[in-house]
Here is the input.
Amino acid sequence: MLAPAQPVFPVTLVMVGAGAIYSKQFMKPASIENASFRILIVVAIVLAIGCILLGFQIHAVDNYLFMRLVSLVFEPRLDSRAAPKLLDILFASFECGAAVVIGSKLASVPRTFALLQLFLISMMAQWLLFSAFSIAGHPLSSAVTVMLGGLLGFGFKRLSWKDERLTNQYYELNLRNRELQEARLLLVKQDEIERRVLAADLHDQVLNDLKTLKQLLERLERSGGALEGAELAETCGDAHELLERTMSDVREVMDSLCPSTLEHLGLPAAIEDCCRRGADKAGFKIRFKNEVDETILEKLSVVEKSLLYRLVQESITNICKHAEATKVRVTVSMENSRLRISIADDGKGINGAALRDDSRGIKYMRLRAELIGATVVWQAGEESKGTLVEIRKEVVEQDGDAHPHR
Here is the structure.
């Protein structure tokens, strides 16, 4: 029977650190962990067999282990007195590496099972060391090696998760910032388009009517009062009609920019007015129903009401332009604390490709909805006829400064 090897905790700590670094760098996928585990076992067995084949006489070592280890590096021939401790270190390395691997899996396996694995590894290493080489290892040293290796493996795994989370958050923030920049750019483009449309409306309607009115006034001026009777009445009637039409066009442009009904009568009345005007323009029958008390809608800010109105206005405009609908049903209701505005028509339905590709109009509506935390959903109508548009917005209490009109 050979003398027991002396425990040296500094060497144990070195082995634990080396095993932890090894697991940090190379033991990420499960397949690599299994391969690394096998490599540790093979290396330990090969070195142990090599010591036996070289015929070293194994016996006890003194306590100057570090000096012996240093001499192993610089002396051309291995000192046989260091062989028992070398084997002890090899098995400690095996214990540590296995413990680090198990520790890195503590979050994915039951901890009781993981601790049982650590205990069995320590017992197996001690048994192999004693039965194969008649070297009695130190149980405390083995326990420290296994426990520290497991803790370090678990700690490095947690650090790895933290790094991954930070990296994912970084990329998510970058992606979100890019999306916000693109959204701002799209909104600026949409505002520019609306300005151009407004300018075209003013040019084609108001400006032309004013030019015609100017010509009538010039005609009256050139006549020098010669116009009488029916001719004078006809000219004045034409001028009056042009003035009425111009005033109506200007009022319509103003309502499109800032609807007076929204400011004075509230959101439901403004939505109903928008639907009525759309019905008069396109010729469909409109059915409007409001199930929400105005006191609940007062929790919405001016900006939120305005953008919700814009979303409904855009939906009605799309129906007028593309749906060819005969009936439209608009309902304003509440689902718990969520405002729900549904716009259903019996037209030809929305193009599925437009939804998948995010056409310009749909994209603008989604961007406007995102500005106030709302959502817009398009889907087929009842019995797959027409289109159902649902606008949803959480209604929460606003700060006092959110209602400057009060």
Summary: Residues 1-34, 47-70, 73-80, 400-406 have pLDDT under 50 and may be disordered. The CA atoms of residues 70 and 76 lie 12 Å apart. The longest helix spans residues 139-223. The longest strand covers residues 327-335.
